[in-house]
């Protein structure tokens, strides 16, 4: 199937590693011009070089961007636009907030999580949507968490703001549809990234178990019996951002190997 991504411009946020990096790589393999952003310039350079080498696509650029900084977001969107005059795809993404329960967090923790995991998404959409409108439409994908379907123990901040992302996308799907802009939310389950390793290690420390024991138990709770790979997650991301998706908007999906049992 031709996904129609050749020549399209994709802006991928928090793309120096993990799910953002995997998504950027898959988009580049499909022939898109990919602009990646992150706070770490060294990691961005390395990721850009890796993507170009693995994809055979030299149309990869980057911007250093603290996504909690409104002006930095505006600059990143403008930089992405300059390459081709358009932004056809926006993939919103951000690192997860700290694990913990209600009494673990002060007001500053809540504010930081809001700025990182919800307000940054709003700001990127607000900056990119007018560009998409001028060019006849586009695709926006918000990467969240499987908690959009079923809350996760000890991840209060993430559960709260990931749910907000779903509400944002559902509302904006109505507002942006007349401009041919489709927006969806995709939640990873246990995809094997550094973030999942960190959470598993924290669980292991709390329970006095080894990391291997915790991971074995976690994988046993997944019907497919293993963690997913970033590439498997990225395949779904790329489909939702492609011309193959011309009618799905305002929806929330999980890529989780069947882990989530909720039917909502």
Q: What order do the helices and strands come in, and which of them pair?
A:
Layout lengths: L8 E4 L5 H12 L3 E6 L2 H15 L4 E5 L5 H15 L4 E4 L14 H28 L3 E6 L12 H21 L4 E8 L5 H14 L3 H10 L9 H11 L11 E4 L9
Parallel strand pairs: 1-2, 1-4, 2-3, 4-5, 5-6, 6-7
Helix pairs in contact: 1-2, 1-8, 3-4, 4-5, 6-7
Your description of this structure?
There is one protein chain. By secondary structure, this protein is an alpha/beta fold. The chain is built from eight helices and seven strands; from the N terminus they run E-H-E-H-E-H-E-H-E-H-E-H-H-H-E. The protein has a seven-stranded parallel β-sheet, with helices on both faces. It starts with 8 loop residues before the first strand and ends in a 9-residue tail after the last strand. The mean pLDDT is 96.
In short:
The protein has 264 residues and is an alpha/beta fold. The chain has eight helices and seven strands, in the order βαβαβαβαβαβαααβ.
SSE order, as H and E? EHEHEHEHEHEHHHE
* Mass-distribution shape: globular
Cα Rg? 18 Å
> Any low-confidence stretches, pLDDT <50, length ≥5?
none
Question: What characterizes the major β-sheet?
Answer: 7 strands, parallel
If helices are DSSP runs of H or I spanning 4 or more residues, what is the number of helices?
8
What fraction of the residues are assigned to beta strands by DSSP? 5-15%
Query: Class by helix and strand content?
Result: alpha/beta
What is the topology, as strand order, of the major beta sheet?
3-2-1-4-5-6-7
Number of strands: 7
User: Average pLDDT, to the nearest integer?
Assistant: 96
- Percentage of residues in helical conformation: 40-55%
Task: Measure the end-to-end span.
Answer: 30 Å
């Amino acid at each position: 199937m031709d996904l129609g991504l050749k020549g399209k411009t994709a802006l991928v946020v928090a793309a120096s590693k993990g799910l953002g990096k995997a998504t950027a790589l898959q988009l580049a393999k499909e022939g898109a011009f990919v602009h990646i952003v992150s706070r770490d310039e060294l990691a961005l350079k390395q990721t850009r070089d890796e993507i170009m080498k693995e994809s055979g696509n030299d149309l990869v650029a980057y911007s250093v961007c603290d996504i909690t900084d409104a002006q930095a977001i505006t600059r990143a969107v403008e930089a992405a636009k300059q390459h081709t005059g358009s932004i056809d795809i926006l993939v919103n993404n951000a690192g997860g907030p700290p694990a913990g329960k209600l009494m673990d967090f002060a007001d500053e923790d809540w504010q930081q999580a809001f700025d990182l995991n919800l307000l940054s998404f709003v700001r990127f959409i607000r900056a990119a949507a007018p560009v998409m409108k001028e060019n006849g439409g586009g695709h926006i994908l918000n990467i969240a968490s499987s908690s959009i379907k079923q809350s996760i123990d000890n991840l209060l901040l993430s559960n709260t703001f990931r749910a907000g992302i779903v509400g944002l996308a559902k509302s904006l799907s109505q507002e942006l549809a007349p401009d041919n802009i489709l927006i969806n939310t995709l939640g990873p389950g246990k995809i094997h990234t550094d973030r999942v390793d960190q959470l598993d290690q924290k669980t292991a420390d709390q329970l006095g178990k080894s990391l291997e024991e915790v991971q074995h138990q976690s994988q046993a709770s997944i019907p497919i019996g293993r963690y997913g790979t970033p590439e498997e997650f990225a395949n779904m991301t790329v489909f939702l951002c492609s011309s193959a998706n011309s009618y799905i908007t305002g929806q929330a999906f999980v890529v989780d190997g069947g882990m989530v049992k909720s039917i909502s």
